Structure formats: structure tokens, C-alpha cells
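Input record, target 12 of the design panel.
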């Protein structure tokens, strides 16, 4: 006998009592994956086909393993576009949109070169390329798997002014070749308890040595020779890392250091300008 949607709605509330977010994700799944309408979901108690039922059982099995919805749907919305994501890359975070927004307001000039160091899904670099069609963006990553994902997103979104480069941070970039370097590097310490909730995401994209500061140090050390005069380095960082990241930028010759807050009013983005 075929089952109706209400059967699964109840099953989900029984499996995760009090966990409203999974019920919300379930509704989202029904719309996105099975293309069901609000009427079918909320009013008609729609009767499911065998394939739809299998798909829902698959959703439930993956949620039992705590797989994030974006990986289940292989899709993540970032800065107004849908990006393909899978466990090869980090799921884009809303606070990263603040970094993109800040750069989009800079009025980048035609022909300027922007580097997205540790591009992952490509969400930062591709969003910048889309909103600034007159600039050139290079998305760097040390993970070949993530470059595959970034290229898939470049092709899906038809972005011509974004190119991926395999590179250990800025190592494969020519000296004095870019105007702006942006990065959301891994910045979680490997002892951080938040990691327990992130066990489906690539560890390489999340953790860094030296209390999460190692990659800020490497990039800040490499950046001055790669940037053109007056160039800018912009980082996303952990909410308790503002002081250390500012200090690292200062030590490497950056001036006019400025920090922006995220939606929770946590210091999250720090920027510096190369003084000479
Ligand atoms: N730049 C990508 C993002 O912001 C990847 C970041 C990372 O892997 N640390 O999502």
C-alpha cells in the first residue's frame, strides 16, 4: 500500500522529537528534490509513488547519520546563486557573504586581478567574478578534489572570468601579479568542540595548526610579494581571532587594518592594505 506524506511527517517527529529543524528540512526536501507543491504537502496529504517513498527513506537514513541537508541536495545557496556541493568541499556559510559583499562595494577597476586562496566550492571567487565581470578572479586550492567542484560551479554558472589554479596557498602565483587576495582559510583548532558537529565536512578545510592560526600566517607571509603596490588582503576568521589576525597582518607590513562584524555581531572579517 502506498504511503501518504503525513505518514512520513509523523515518522520524522517520532524519530526526532522536539527537533523542528529536521521537519523543516524534510519539507524543503519534498519541494526541492521531489518537486511537490505546497498543496500536496500541506493540504492534500499526497499519496507517494514507490520512488518518492524510497527517496524519503533515503533522506531519513542520511539525517540519522547527521548529513547536512546541503550535501543531501548537493546544492547550497550563496550570495544569490546555487552552488553544487558535496563532501569534497565545505558548505558555504552565510557569514562569508559579508566578505563578498565588502569586496563587491570596493569598486574594483577593469582588469584588476583577485585571488581567492583556498577556494573550496569556489563560492567566494565565483560570486566576485559574477558581480564584477570586468575583473579576473583566480580560485586557488591545494585540494584537487575541491578544484573539480569549483570548476563544476564555474561551468554550471557560466562564469568566464574565474579560473582555478592548483596551489599550496600562494606558492604558484607570480610575484607582483594581483590587486586583492581574499581567503576564508581553515581556522578551527583541532581541539575545538565545534568540530564534533562538522564530521561530514572535509577536515582539511576546517582545521589549522597553531590554534587555527597557521594558514593566516602562511598567507600573510606570502602575500606581500604577490600583491601589487597598495594591494589588499582580506580574511574571514574565527570570532575570537580578531586580535591575532590583525597582529599577523601588521607584522607582515599591512596597514589600515579594519575588522567587520558578522550577523551575530562577532568580529569576523579583517582587512589590511600593503603599505609599500
Ligand atoms: N572559500 C571556501 C568557502 O568560503 C572554502 C573555505 C574553506 O574550505 N576553508 O566556503
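The sequence produced for target 12 reads:
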Amino acid at each position: 500500500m502506498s504511503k501518504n506524506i503525513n505518514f512520513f511527517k509523523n515518522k520524522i517527529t517520532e524519530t526526532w522529537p522536539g527537533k523542528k529543524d529536521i521537519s523543516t528540512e524534510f519539507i524543503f526536501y519534498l519541494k526541492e528534490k521531489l518537486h511537490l507543491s505546497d498543496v500536496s504537502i500541506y493540504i492534500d496529504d499526497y499519496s507517494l509513488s514507490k520512488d518518492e517513498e524510497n527517496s524519503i527513506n533515503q533522506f531519513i537514513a542520511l539525517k540519522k547519520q547527521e548529513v547536512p541537508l546541503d550535501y543531501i541536495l548537493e546544492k547550497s545557496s550563496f550570495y544569490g546563486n546555487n552552488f553544487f556541493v558535496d563532501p569534497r568541499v565545505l558548505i558555504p556559510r552565510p557569514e562569508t557573504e559579508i566578505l563578498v559583499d565588502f569586496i563587491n562595494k570596493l569598486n574594483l577597476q577593469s582588469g584588476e586581478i583577485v585571488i581567492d586562496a583556498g577556494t573550496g566550492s569556489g563560492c567566494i571567487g565565483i560570486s566576485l567574478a559574477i558581480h564584477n565581470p570586468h575583473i579576473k578572479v583566480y580560485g586557488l586550492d591545494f585540494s584537487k578534489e575541491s578544484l573539480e567542484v569549483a570548476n563544476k560551479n564555474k561551468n554550471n554558472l557560466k562564469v568566464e572570468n574565474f579560473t582555478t589554479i592548483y596551489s599550496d596557498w600562494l606558492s604558484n602565483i607570480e610575484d607582483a601579479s594581483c590587486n586583492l587576495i581574499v581567503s576564508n582559510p581553515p581556522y578551527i583548532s583541532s581541539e575545538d568542540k565545534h568540530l564534533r558537529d562538522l564530521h561530514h565536512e572535509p577536515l582539511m578545510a576546517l582545521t589549522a595548526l597553531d590554534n587555527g592560526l597557521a594558514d593566516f600566517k602562511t598567507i600573510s607571509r606570502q602575500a606581500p610579494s604577490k600583491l601589487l603596490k597598495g594591494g589588499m588582503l582580506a580574511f574571514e576568521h574565527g570570532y575570537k581571532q580578531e586580535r591575532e589576525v590583525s597582529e599577523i597582518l601588521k607584522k607582515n607590513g599591512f596597514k589600515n587594518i579594519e575588522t567587520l562584524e558578522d550577523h551575530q555581531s562577532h568580529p569576523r572579517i579583517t582587512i589590511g592594505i600593503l603599505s609599500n
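The chain has two domains: 5-65, 79-274.
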